[in-house]
């Protein structure tokens, strides 16, 4: 059957900004058209589907039934736990919908730092006590693809790996695929020779900053951030935050960005 070749995917959005979906839309190899028409069968995605309202609800429940036990569940966004009414889809609380959707999923992919670790919605003052997918789902294989947004190729490569080998890729202790999150970005950063030689930008716009020196003294979290940004880069134009002069803020790490830095700045 067609869906055997193209695994059915149900994609739900909870507390998020849709930046992760936007990131996927901008991939080029494969592009989103090949992804949707050749690789997977996207059964439900609120941003991309034409249906809305009752029609959309019917599509979702039809997909739950038709692909019971087979579908891959992708979650974008965190789940409120203090105020469940804060995020509802089709009049159903996010928490309940996640439980229902994951029950017959073959695996769950948490795309982005919101669903992987709580992300921006979990930053102080934590109005909704936002939870990650793995905080709630304990009985399914889970892959976290953190990043805010994540590199689309880390998601697409995970899908390709699943299609090719019919199993999940090897993960680290935060459930991140090792092929993408196995090393800190500091290892492959083009500013690394400056770090090793003690040449640092001290302030934005100073001589060192303009000369491309290391951004460690501007707060770069590269030495503690596991991700492939310095190798994979973004948007097919070879840039990533550090290459354009901004320190890494550790967006793929559970505790670096979201629990400390932003909270300190509020
Ligand atoms: Fe948006 Fe970042 Fe959350 Fe993705 S991880 S939904 S880009 S806030
Ligand atoms: Fe490491 Fe950041 Fe300096 Fe690059 S800019 S060498 S990642 S500390
Ligand atoms: Fe995020 Fe740092 Fe990469 S902020 S995008 S992990 S360079």
Encode the helix/strand succession as letters: HEHHEHEEEHEHHEHHHHHH
Q: How many beta strands in the DSSP annotation? A: 7
User: Low-confidence runs (pLDDT<50, min 5 residues)?
Assistant: none
| CATH H level, superfamily name of the largest domain | NADH:ubiquinone oxidoreductase-like, 20kDa subunit
CATH top level label of the largest domain: Alpha Beta
Largest sheet: 5 strands, parallel
Q: Helical region count?
A: 13
Helix content: 25-40%
Structural class: alpha/beta
- CATH second-level architecture of the largest domain: 3-Layer(aba) Sandwich
The gyration radius over C-alpha positions equals 19 Å
Question: What strand line-up does the widest sheet have?
Answer: 2-1-3-6-7
User: What is the overall silhouette?
Assistant: globular
Strand proportion, as a percent range, falls in 5-15%
The termini sit apart by 53 Å
CATH fold-level topology of the largest domain: Rossmann fold
Instruction: Tally the structural domains.
Output: 2
Cofactors, ions, other ligands:
iron/sulfur cluster, FE3-S4 cluster
The chain-level mean pLDDT equals 91
Protein name: Hydrogenase (NiFe) small subunit HydA
GO molecular function: 3 iron, 4 sulfur cluster binding; 4 iron, 4 sulfur cluster binding; electron transfer activity; ferredoxin hydrogenase activity; hydrogenase (acceptor) activity; metal ion binding
Cofactor: [4Fe-4S] cluster; [3Fe-4S] cluster
Organism: Flexistipes sinusarabici (strain ATCC 49648 / DSM 4947 / MAS 10)
